[in-house]
């Protein structure tokens, strides 16, 4: 019994540790602590690094050596495709060998660079294989099977280090904490083998087909071993080329220990920990810190950056081609190819445009192009190329080309966001700038490598040109500030790199060689500031001239006569009367048979209620409206959606948040006396006995009555601002459109009123909109007004009376609610969105209503709590003086 209790205590302790680890801040501390430890260990070596010396070492590498290093790096990345061929055979995935290789390259290069514990690679594999028609029931176990085996090869190499086959005694003796890291990685291999052979793994991953065979386990470890062995071989070849020969076993051992540190740091690509440990190991061999850092820079460039750029190209061309299951998706933009290049890339069949990730890859290629131009301009040119350029062109032309290259680099960085958002004008300007950047890269110093890369990116954009369909997109203040900060950091980095690299490079030039261009260090600061300022000025001009005003014209239809005629046909609902307030725009879909009434807030079009029109046309109408909004980068949201239309919204990919419920009183069986409203007859009797008078004033209303209503309304508001959008406000033209319910005292003074809103549904429903009363009214005033209204509506033949909206008490408050729903609820309550609704549900219960839910339907791409902030802003957007008259 005592031992069982101890086991439970240990289990609780483990659970406590896991709970602590789940906290994001704690998880972020792990890589920071490891990197901090490594930095503390290697701070002396880091102080000896000089940027100018590194640039000098890199510039001295001959072209044949570069080709050899690049070739082995690409081969090493290609070897990683054995993972995908392994799961292809083990799980019998129906994909071709070439497709499997492409998927592997994209997933592995993104995973190498971005990392996140393999999540990047797993997510991309899921997307790519699902596009090929691999069912989720097969794909999910395959991805789970693949994830834990990727470090088994490094674990096997750790055993080689511990047994002396790959000796790293000097590095482990100098930094003893690395011994624990190596042992921890080594113990992973037996754990992996036991897991693979377990019955639980056979049940969950192998889908009941028995334990994993020893051959598959060996193949798994072998695939991982090939990855890490080739990566270490790449590191040794690069070190040998830059250092003039290096012992294989020693350098490979250093790589293994550094890779272990990088894995344990959990940083993307092991950046920081891997580099510092490798630096410490290489300097122990007597290699200068500058030379060791040059090895790491080349390794990062050839093994991570260049393959990732190729992966971007493959992703831009690959992702978005249709899967075997077809391309029909309701509400999405589905198109067919119009270029021969798209057919050359793929195979016979239908094609669609790039998915979000594919366009994201195009945007990052453009961003990389801008950074490459700036990097090329910040670092000194090769002397022999400068001589060639000076012989062909004049020095002023080279200077102008240099400055223009920097300007184009900044512009490309800024325009990369527009490429990711599919803006056509961004595509046009980017294409022109890529061509210009290629020309100026060539004329400033014969940099044909950069020029070819820019032309390649331009070619890929041209192949994908039909994918840029948006006319414009909204620009938010937050996005503008973020990009201003990013470009400012880039400009500062350009200045620092340019100043130090030119200074260091000049110190190592042969005596008597002093190119005039390289001596002018002050031009670096001028070029950085000028490029930053002029790029933003040009972008501001483009934004100022952008055709966003066309979006305003497209969504500016407020034809009240057409609206009145449409509602007269019986296509309205309880919210339709508020469309006459004039604060909403109209979009007519399906040749004018379906109406969307909406208001714009930032990059969202918020539709009030459901679309109006025949139910059979609504799905296609929503797709039409969303496509029209998408041309300008706007999202469509439905506010106070009813349950009847939820299946339509769900087919469009929408998510839902319950806003509250609508109180609908059935009039046919309504009686003032009932179990819920036992006190109402007494209220009616008291007010009738005291001489209060209820009346319905039909339009048109006199100026004196409207003035009397305004005075009462101002007293009720008591200095508060009117709300809008889903709530009516005091507007004389609006009040003239419908009857008014008036309650006067025995002396004839107006003490309360309510505006009546027809339902435009064939005389079935009527509701109230604006309700106001004086401060000193007796208790039960609004009860009596509602009772009289209900009796009036019943006598007029209406079936239902809508008492209006009330928040759902439990929405966002339940323990099982999502975090974003809880935040949304808090924003609604504290932001004043539900102003005037406090206690309404309890008050309306006395009239015996039937409660019908109301929802917020929003695209999955939107964040709920940010959307709620926009909705609070929209409802709180009080009307101007011209709207109140």
Describe the structure.
The protein is 60% helix and 9% strand. Strand 3, helix 30 and strand 4 form a beta-alpha-beta unit. The protein starts with a helix and ends with a helix. The chain is α+β, with helices and mostly antiparallel strands and 885 residues long. The longest helix is centred in the middle third of the chain and has 31 residues. An eleven-stranded mixed sheet has the order 1-2-3-4-11-5-10-9-8-7-6. The N terminus is likely disordered.
Structure summarized in a few sentences:
It contains 39 helices and 11 strands. By secondary structure, it is α+β, with helices and mostly antiparallel strands. Helix 7 crosses helix 18 (289-318) and helix 17 packs antiparallel against helix 18 (289-318).
Topology (SSEs and partners):
Layout: H1 2-22, H2 24-41, H3 43-47, H4 51-59, H5 63-79, H6 82-90, H7 97-114, H8 119-131, H9 136-146, H10 152-162, H11 169-174, H12 177-186, H13 188-196, H14 199-204, H15 214-243, H16 248-265, H17 273-284, H18 289-318, H19 340-345, H20 356-378, H21 383-392, H22 395-420, H23 424-445, H24 448-463, H25 477-507, H26 516-519, H27 522-544, H28 548-554, H29 560-568, E1 585-589, E2 594-601, E3 604-608, H30 615-630, E4 635-641, H31 646-651, E5 654-666, H32 680-689, E6 693-697, H33 703-717, H34 732-735, E7 740-744, E8 750-758, E9 765-773, H35 781-795, E10 800-807, H36 819-830, H37 840-844, E11 850-859, H38 864-875, H39 881-884
Parallel strand pairs: 3-4, 9-10
Antiparallel strand pairs: 1-2, 2-3, 4-11, 5-10, 5-11, 6-7, 7-8, 8-9
Helix pairs in contact: 2-17, 4-18, 4-25, 5-15, 5-18, 6-7, 6-9, 6-15, 7-8, 7-18, 8-9, 10-12, 10-15, 10-16, 12-16, 15-16, 15-18, 16-17, 17-18, 18-20, 20-22, 20-23, 20-24, 20-25, 22-23, 22-27, 23-24, 25-27, 32-35, 36-38
């Amino acid at each position: 019994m005592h031992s069982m209790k101890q086991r439970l205590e240990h289990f609780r302790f483990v659970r406590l540790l896991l709970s602590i680890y789940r906290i994001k801040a704690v998880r972020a501390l792990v890589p920071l602590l490891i990197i901090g430890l490594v930095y503390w260990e290697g701070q002396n070596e880091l102080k000896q690094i000089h940027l100018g010396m590194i640039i000098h070492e890199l510039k001295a590498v001959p072209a044949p050596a570069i080709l050899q290093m690049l070739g082995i790096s690409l081969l090493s990345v290609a070897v990683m495709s054995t993972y995908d061929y392994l799961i292809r055979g083990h799980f019998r995935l129906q994909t071709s060998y070439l497709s499997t290789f492409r998927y592997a390259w994209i997933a592995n290069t993104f995973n190498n660079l971005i990392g996140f514990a393999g999540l990047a690679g797993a997510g991309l594999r899921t997307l790519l294989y699902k596009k090929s028609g691999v069912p989720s029931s097969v794909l999910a176990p395959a991805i789970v099977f693949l994830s834990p085996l990727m470090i088994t090869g490094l674990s096997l190499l750790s055993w080689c280090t511990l047994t002396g086959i790959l000796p790293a005694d000097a590095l482990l003796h100098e930094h003893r904490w690395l011994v624990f890291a190596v042992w921890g990685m080594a113990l992973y291999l037996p754990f992996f083998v036991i897991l693979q052979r377990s019955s639980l793994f056979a049940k969950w991953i192998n889908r009941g087909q028995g334990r994993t065979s020893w051959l598959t386990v060996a193949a798994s470890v072998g695939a991982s071993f090939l990855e890490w062995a080739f990566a270490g071989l790449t590191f040794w070849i690069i070190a040998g080329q830059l250092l003039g020969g290096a012992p294989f076993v020693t350098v490979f051992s250093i790589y293994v220990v550094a890779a272990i540190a990088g894995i344990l740091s959990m940083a993307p690509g092991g950046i920081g920990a891997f580099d510092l440990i490798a630096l410490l190991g290489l300097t122990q061999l007597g290699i200068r810190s500058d030379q060791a850092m040059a090895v790491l820079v080349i390794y990062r460039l050839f093994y991570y950056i260049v393959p990732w750029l190729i992966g971007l190209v493959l992703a831009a061309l690959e992702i978005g081609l249709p899967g075997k299951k077809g391309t029909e998706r309701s509400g999405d933009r589905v198109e067919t190819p119009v270029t021969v290049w798209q057919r050359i890339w793929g195979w016979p069949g239908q094609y669609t445009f790039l998915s979000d990730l594919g366009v994201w890859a195009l945007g990052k290629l453009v961003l990389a192009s801008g950074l490459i131009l700036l990097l090329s301009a910040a670092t000194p040119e090769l002397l022999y190329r400068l001589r060639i350029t000076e012989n062909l062109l004049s020095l002023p032309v080279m200077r102008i080309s240099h400055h223009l290259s920097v300007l184009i680099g900044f512009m490309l960085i800024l325009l990369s966001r527009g490429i990711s958002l599919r803006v056509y004008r961004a595509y046009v300007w980017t294409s022109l700038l890529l061509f210009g950047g290629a020309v100026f890269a060539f004329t400033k110093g014969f940099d044909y490598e950069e020029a070819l890369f820019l032309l390649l990116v331009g070619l890929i954009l041209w192949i994908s040109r039909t994918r840029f369909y948006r006319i414009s997109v909204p620009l938010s203040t937050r996005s503008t500030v973020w990009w201003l900060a990013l470009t400012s950091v880039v400009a500062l980095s350009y200045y620092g790199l340019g100043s130090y690299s030119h200074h260091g490079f000049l110190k190592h030039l042969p005596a008597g060689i002093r190119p005039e261009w390289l001596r002018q260090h002050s031009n670096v600061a001028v070029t950085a500031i000028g490029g930053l300022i002029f790029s933003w000025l040009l972008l501001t001009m483009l934004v100022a001239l952008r055709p966003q005003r066309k979006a305003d014209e497209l969504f500016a239809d407020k034809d009240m006569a057409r609206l009145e005629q449409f509602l007269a046909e019986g296509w309205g609902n309880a919210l339709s009367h508020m469309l006459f307030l004039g604060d909403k725009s109209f979009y007519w879909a399906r040749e004018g048979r379906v109406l969307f009434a909406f208001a714009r807030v930032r990059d969202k079009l918020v539709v009030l209620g459901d679309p109006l029109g025949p139910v059979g046309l609504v799905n296609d109408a929503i797709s039409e409206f969303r496509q029209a909004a998408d041309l300008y980068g706007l999202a469509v949201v439905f506010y106070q959606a009813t349950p009847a239309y939820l299946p339509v919204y769900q087919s469009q990919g929408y998510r839902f948040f319950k806003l509250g419920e609508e109180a609908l009183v059935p009039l046919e069986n309504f009686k003032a006396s009932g179990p819920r409203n036992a006190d109402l007859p007494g209220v009616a009797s008291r007010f009738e006995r005291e001489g209060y008078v209820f009346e319905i004033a039909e339009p048109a209303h006199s100026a004196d009555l409207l003035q009397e209503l305004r005075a009462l309304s101002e007293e009720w508001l008591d200095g508060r601002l009117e709300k809008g959008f889903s709530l009516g406000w005091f507007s004389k033209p609006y009040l003239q459109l419908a009857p008014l319910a008036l309650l006067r005292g025995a002396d004839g003074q107006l003490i309360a009123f309510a505006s009546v809103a027809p339902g435009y549904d064939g005389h079935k429903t009527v509701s109230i909109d604006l309700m106001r009363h004086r401060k000193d009214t007796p208790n039960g005033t609004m009860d009596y007004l509602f009772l009289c209204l209900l009796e009036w509506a019943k006598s007029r033949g209406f079936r239902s009376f809508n008492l209006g909206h009330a928040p759902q008490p439990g929405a966002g408050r339940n323990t099982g609610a999502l975090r974003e729903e809880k935040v949304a609820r808090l924003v609604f309550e504290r932001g004043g969105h539900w102003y005037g609704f406090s206690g309404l549900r309890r008050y309306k219960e006395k009239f015996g209503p039937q409660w019908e839910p109301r929802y917020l339907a929003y695209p999955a791409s939107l964040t709920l709590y940010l959307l709620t902030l926009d909705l609070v802003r929209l409802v709180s957007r009080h009307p101007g003086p011209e709207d109140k008259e």
